[in-house]
Amino acid sequence: MFSRPFHFGCRPRFAIVVAIGALGPVGRAAPLPAPAQAFIEAHCASCHDDVEKKGGLDLASLALRPEDPKNFATWVKVHDRVMAGEMPPKKKARPAAAEIETFVNTLAGPLVAAERAVEAGQGRATQRRLNRYEYENAVRDLLGAPWLQIRDGLPEDGEAHRFNKIGDALDLSHVNLARYLAVAEEALRQVLAHQVERPETKVTRYYARDQRSFSSRMIYSVFNTRAERATFPVLGTQAQPDVRSTKQPITVGAADPATREREAMGVVASSYEPIELRFERFKAPQSGRYKVRVSAYSVWVGPGKAPPGKADRWWIPNFDDVSPGRRPEPLTFYAEMPPRQLRRLGAFDVGTEPTTGELDVLLLEGETIRPDAVRFFRSRPSNWVNPLATREGQPGVAFRWLEVEGPILDGWPGAGHRLMFGDLPLRKKPGGTGVEVVARDPARDADRLLRNFVARAYRRPVDTDEIAPFRAVIDASLRAGSTFTDAMIAGYTAVLCSPGFVCQEEKPGPLSDHAVAARLAFFLWNSAPDEALRAVAARGEVRRPEVLRAQTERLLAHPKARQFVDAFLDYWLDLRKIQATSPDSALYNDYYLDDALIEAALEETQLFFAELLRHDLPARNLIAADFAFVNERLADHYGLPPVNGIGLRRVPLPSDSPRGGLLTQASVLKVTANGTTTSPVLRGAWIMERVLGLPPPPPPPSVPAVEPDIRGAKTIRQLLDKHRSEESCAACHTRIDPAGFALENFDVMGGWRDKYRAIADGVPPVDGIGKGGLKFTFHYAQPVDATGELWDGRAFRDVRDLKRLLLAEQTQVARNLAKQLATYATGAPVRFSDRWAIEKILERTRDGGHGVRALVHAIVQSELFLNK
């Protein structure tokens, strides 16, 4: 069905060893081995000689120069296409199986030998620095400050082979170094103790009525002339028109605690401009861990009334008619730093009775808390209507208070300060502005503290002479008049910018125990090894298979393994780009501004892969699974049986559901669309490359992309048929497009469709109101045709059929996953000579259906992982 990668014949390692043993010196052009030359003359030269040169390939005069990357890639392509049965083409006579095996094994020898020669001198992986995610995590763990946000202060990382972990793409320029210096010093100063006494952990309540963002929206202004954009006061579920009209004060205050507890401020719209609710009287006094509790409940707001003789405007909320809510409501909470810098903290549901939900969060100094009733609409100019409004009224949420407990400290000073300055005392600076460290013996203290810091920062034993450059920085700073505190920070900053911290230090050949420990931690935690793993490495035990397996299990069981899941999926599946495009506000205004749907879609894929990893589920689940992770919004989007609440949970799928597996998850379908249209070419290429590991060649530069017809006159299939009729395009598109056609039943946000949406003058739109409160402007046009035929002639009717065909390729799916994991884990692509190692990994995991956890274990135990 699809091109298979090379398996080195029936007996791979034997074939390679024989070929390599017969090979002469590598590095100069050499004639092809006689069996390979004979095969080309008999089966290839008629099309690929110096006369025909089909596909621009002349094999008759192509020398073998495996040290030349372009030449090497050409011969690998020849090897793979012959091995896959693609060449000679079907219309030509087929060589005998033994003849093919002889050819590919003969050709493989010099290619493998060339790569092994480079590997012997340099290793597989190029020496590399940490990417900015790894650097941030490593600094957080070193300083015991998981709240640090420093990666955005570093330049974007380069990418190669789909990941940001490849040395060839991770340069280290003067710009990088300057940024490292800046963020390292910033991180160190953020963890310094800012006062002598331990800060008190307080529990403080902030009432909604005391917050200007709640109370000021109660009064209409030029920016807010409609009730849907207003807040309203309630006492329990009782309306308070006199408070709303300011005839009574906004709150009874501390004079009446019982009544104050029941006071609340309600909304019928999402927290979006101009209703941007926030508990602004709270600002985190310092960065760290806090517990955040919010009390809120759902209400029902009656329909608007019109003056006598006029029709009721039922879609306008009547804030004098408030009653208990009719269902729970989901709330999402964000940390906010002006101007409108938001970080999602978490979410929970509130019921029809006052509900107190709690989140354990990490906050930066100065951040406040922003709540959002995410199911509600976000009004957009100019003639909006609340899509949740009915003739009986509309739902609302009433907020009572925010309660914050914190900062929650493990000790004082914090771990980062103690690492830098140990038990040295603190005192207030002269003038009372801040604190400083008091050194009893500056020279001796500096030496002791610096040695300890470097030993903790570096992921290997430290030689004495490596300390000297950092001590020189400290001494120079002291001579220049810096305080002991500032001088030590200068030295520590240099450590955090030095190769021993910034770079993965690996030498060609078998990795040392410390290098294996570092590689394992950056694989499964995307961060540096902890003390337990470093201790095992120090004893020289980490390479022992049973110890390595136990440590792998320990790291996978730790909460930090979620950092691996998220980072791996961000690049393998491009999930980091899920916000790169927005659903078109005209064609897809039912999705436009629906952050809750996008957040659920992203989390679904993360939880799905984590589930495969946790329970060692077979890799075939990537194609088709009988379960999904959904919440209320996502279940409704997928047309699944209803579930309640904003929290995602695993649910079984109906037997006839098109969902299950990666291909039909909303996150994947969104990142493979542009917000306006879908493309079978893009989605088909995505499946070939990301799921099957068979990337199609890039399109010729002279061929323009196919532009969709948003008027609905022609379907994308009709437009592509013309494109595919050109011989130069058909060869690739007959492989790429079919899988993409099967996904045409899914729109730009992964919703099911039987017809394409279109916008055209004179065609009445579909009835409905979008998330922004504006009426639909689209109509349903041409029907979707999701049928197709694979290049080998097997037909499918829809995505369900396609999944069944892809399941026949489940070994290839597992092979690709193993390659992606190996690339991510080792910082090097899987090369031609590495293929046998991948096949060995597949052999070790075959009995369990290539379970995802088993694949991770097999990779960690492989020569690919244990050698540079």
Tell me briefly what this model is.
This protein is α+β, with helices and mostly antiparallel strands and 868 residues long.
- Mean pLDDT, to the nearest integer, reads 91
- Terminal residue distance: 35 Å
The count of DSSP E runs of length 2 or more, i.e. the number of strands, is 21
Stretches with pLDDT under 50, minimum 5 residues: 1-27
Using only CA atoms, what is the Rg? 32 Å
Largest sheet: 8 strands, antiparallel
Report on the structure:
The two termini are 35 Å apart. Strands 2, 3, 4, 5, 6, 7, 10 and 12 form an eight-stranded antiparallel sheet that branches. Strands 9-8-11 form a three-stranded antiparallel sheet, with no helix packed on it. It is flat. A hairpin with a 6-residue loop joins strand 13 (426-428) and strand 14 (435-437). It has 868 residues and is an alpha+beta fold. It contains 29 helices and 21 strands.
Feature tags:
868 residues; alpha+beta; eight-stranded antiparallel β-sheet; three-stranded antiparallel β-sheet; 37% helix; disordered N terminus
